[in-house]
């Protein structure tokens, strides 16, 4: 029997490269067979969709992960398929009366073997968060369709863990330098997160068009961590002049939701700070 599941990702990014702090939402509602959730994410290919395995790391542990960024779905391979369902209108609600409707994007022109729509939205964080730049209470709600029922979820999204220094050197711009043969010390602005389920991940990433390699380390939100040299060296194999390399620190939370017509649904909320590396 085909599986029906939904993944939504809400990313709050701090100001970088001269841009203002923004909130970006991406997601899909799928009917699929023959794929893992990670496989479905890779096939759909939305850039902000989080790896479902991000929450598998234990505190104090690190892992090197390699992902393909150009996965295609071949119809003759075990008859695997994925159809993206129309969930009707999906809205973001914030503050007293703020609301923003997510756009539905057809994907058939990009993926011949995938039909349906994805959901996307992008808006300045100033519309959503209080002027102090603190936490923001967000709600996502789906109005439902002939294929899926309604849903509603809420989450208090923390501020980004702004990166303060890399290997003891203060981050004063959009770039930082590192030694690819040594361990990497990172400090960030800690809020002393009150939530007991705070999930903070520090990632060293090398990205190409069709491939990415990441060193992921889960840490307590204390404001400092040291990434191991062997993991840094593993990422360096993809770090060339044509590769985007970056350091990312993000606070993560997962909120499950239910809707008729779905076997499983969850939203990943990420408050993210990043710096490009050279």
SSE layout and pairings?
Layout: E1 3-13, E2 22-33, H1 37-44, E3 62-68, E4 81-84, E5 90-94, E6 98-101, E7 103-106, E8 114-124, E9 136-142, E10 151-157, E11 163-166, E12 169-170, E13 175-176, E14 184-188, E15 199-207, E16 211-219, E17 224-227, H2 229-236, E18 244-257, E19 264-277
Parallel strand pairs: 1-19, 4-8, 13-19
Antiparallel strand pairs: 1-2, 2-4, 2-8, 3-16, 5-6, 5-9, 7-8, 9-10, 11-12, 11-14, 14-17, 15-16, 15-18, 18-19
Describe this structure in words.
By secondary structure, the chain is mainly beta. The chain has one domain (3-277). The chain has helices at residues 37-44, 229-236, and strands at residues 3-13, 22-33, 62-68, 81-84, 90-94, 98-101, 103-106, 114-124, 136-142, 151-157, 163-166, 169-170, 175-176, 184-188, 199-207, 211-219, 224-227, 244-257, 264-277. The strands form three sheets. Strands 1, 2, 3, 4, 7, 8, 13, 15, 16, 18 and 19 form an eleven-stranded mixed sheet that branches. The protein has a four-stranded antiparallel sheet with strand order 6-5-9-10, with no helix packed on it. It has a four-stranded antiparallel sheet with strand order 12-11-14-17. β7 (103-106) and β8 form a beta hairpin. The chain is globular and about 55 Å long.
